[in-house]
Amino acid sequence: MLNRRLIRSKVFQALYAFTRTEDPSMKQALSYLRDSLEGVEKNFMVFLHFPVEFAEYVRREKDPSENKYLLKDNDMEVYEALKLTGLFEELLIHPVIGKYAEKPYLIWREEDVLLKNIYKDIQEQEFFKAYLSSDKSRDEQLEFLKSFYRYLAFDNESFDQRMEEFEMHWEDERHPIANAVKKMLENPENKEALKLPSLSKNRSEDLEFAEALFKKTLEHQTEYEDLVDANTPGWDKDRIAVADLLLMVMAITELINFPHIPVKVTLNEYLELAKIYSTPQSSRFLNGILDNITGILRKDERIVKKGRGLIE
Question: If you classify domain 220-310 with CATH, what class do you get?
Fold first, then answer.
C-alpha cells in the first residue's frame, strides 16, 4: 500500500514545507516526514474500521423491532443486511482491528450525523440493492464489503469531508488505502478468513528511500535548479511555479542518484505528481523540460543505471 508514488508525494510535501520555512530544521523536517509516512497506517486503520462501527450503529439505532413507527415493507430486510453479520463480524474479532478498536484514532460511533447520512444514502446505491436481493453468501458478502469501501472512499461526500477534517492528506492517501483494502478482500485466502494486507513490503527500505530522496534533493537543489534554468530558454527560474521547479529537481535527483530506479518510472511518477500538485498545464511543461534534460544527462553519462534501473 505504501507505494513509491505515495512516498514521493510525502517527500514533496516535506520538501515544500522545508524550503518555504524561514528557519528550517533538518531534524524537524525528517521527523515530519517519518510521521507522515507512519500516518498512512493510522488512516488505513481508521478507514478499515468504519464498517464495524457502522454495523454497531445500525444495531443500536435502527432495529425495527424496537421502534414504534410504522414499518415499511423492507425495513427489517434492510436492517438485517446492514447490521453486517457473518463476514463483517470477522472484522470485529480480527486481532489487529480488535486491538485498534480498543483505542481508535477516530471514534466513529460519535459521528451520529455521518452515520445517519450513510445509513440513508447507502439504501439508494445499486450495489446495496443488489446485495439486498442476493442470498448473502460469503462471496456476495465479500463483494458487498468491497463495494462499501469503494463507496466510502469515492462516492460519499460526507465521509470524504470528515476524513479530510481528520487528516489533511486524505486526498493523497485514499487511493492507495482503498486499493489496499480492495486487495485484501480479493485475496483468495479470504474464502476462509480475513487477512490484512501488508502496509509495506519493506518498511525500513521505504523510510530509507524517503529520507535519501529528501536529503539528496536538498544537497543538489541549487545545482539542479541551475540545470533547469539552463534548459528553459525564455523562462526566468523565478517565473517557474515553485511546485513545478521542486518536482523537476526531485526528478533530476532520482535520475542521477538512484541507479536502481528506471528512467521511465521516474519521469512518469513526477508527471503524475505534477497533475496533483500544480496546474493542469504543468505535466506537459515538465514533460518537455525533463525529456530534454534526460537526453543531456545521458549524453554526459550522468545517468548510470543498474539492476532494475536498466529496465526501460
Answer: mainly alpha
